[in-house]
C-alpha cells in the first residue's frame, strides 16, 4: 500500500505543481488530486482525457475557460482561512481547460472517471452550501462544493474548517464497502492547510476485523495530503492551530453512505453529529 501522507513540494515545478496524486501512485482506482501554485500571469492548461475535473480555487483570482466555456474571471478569497466559499470550475471528460492567474493563485485539481454527462460550468460561492456540524469540541464548518445533489459523474468535493482543539470526521466513520444502501465504497483524499502554518494536526486511519489491517496515526504539516484507501479516519486540530482540509471522494457509485465505528456509535445518540 502507498504511503498515506503525500507532502507538498517546497518549490513548484515548471508548471506550478506542488503536489500530485494519481490512481497509480495511490494504488487505487478512482481519485486523482493535484495542487498548483501559480504566479501572477502564469497559465495552467490541462487536458481532461477520460476524467472529469473540479478545479477549486483555494486562494487568489484567475480567469478560466474550457473548450465550451468562454473566459470567466473568478476568485475572491486570498486565503482559505477567510472561511468564505470558493469559486470552482467543473470540467467534463474530453475537454481542455485553462487557468490564468490574475494574482498569486493556489488551485486544487480534483479528478475522477467521467462519462461526459455534464457540461463545463463555474461553481460560484452562492451555489456552495455552507453549514455547521457537531457541537462543542466536534464543531466544524462545511462548504459543500460538489455534493451528490449537484451534477457530476463521480466526484464528491467538500471543504472543512476545524477550529484549534476540535475534531472532525468524528465520530470515526468509514466508507470502504460496496454495500448499498448501508455503505458506499469511496476512495478519499484530504488536503490539509494549517493556521499558523508552523502548526500541526493529527489524523488516524484504521480498520477493524480486516484481513489486511491498517492502523496509522499521522502527524500532519501544512500542505500535506492524506490518502484514505479504507478504514475510519478521524482528524484532530492541535489547540491554537486552525485546520482546513479539502476532501475529494469517488467510487463506483456517486453516493456517500458511511458506517460509524461501533465503539463510538454512542456519541451519535448522546449528541447527534452529522458527519464530514
Structure description:
This is 5-deoxy-glucuronate isomerase. Keywords: Isomerase. It comes from Paenibacillus roseus. By secondary structure, the protein is mainly beta. The chain has helices at 23-26, 266-270; strands at 5-6, 17-21, 32-38, 43-47, 51-59, 62-66, 72-74, 88-91, 96-101, 105-113, 121-123, 129-133, 140-146, 156-162, 167-168, 173-174, 176-179, 183-185, 187-195, 201-206, 215-220, 225-228, 235-237, 242-250, 259-260. A hairpin with a 3-residue loop joins β17 and β18 (183-185).
Task: Present the secondary structure layout.
Elements: E1 5-6, E2 17-21, H1 23-26, E3 32-38, E4 43-47, E5 51-59, E6 62-66, E7 72-74, E8 88-91, E9 96-101, E10 105-113, E11 121-123, E12 129-133, E13 140-146, E14 156-162, E15 167-168, E16 173-174, E17 176-179, E18 183-185, E19 187-195, E20 201-206, E21 215-220, E22 225-228, E23 235-237, E24 242-250, E25 259-260, H2 266-270
Antiparallel strand pairs: 1-22, 2-3, 3-10, 4-9, 5-8, 5-10, 6-7, 6-9, 8-11, 12-13, 13-14, 14-24, 15-23, 16-25, 17-18, 19-22, 19-24, 20-21, 20-23
Question: Could you provide a short overview of the structure?
Answer:
With 276 residues, the protein is mainly beta.
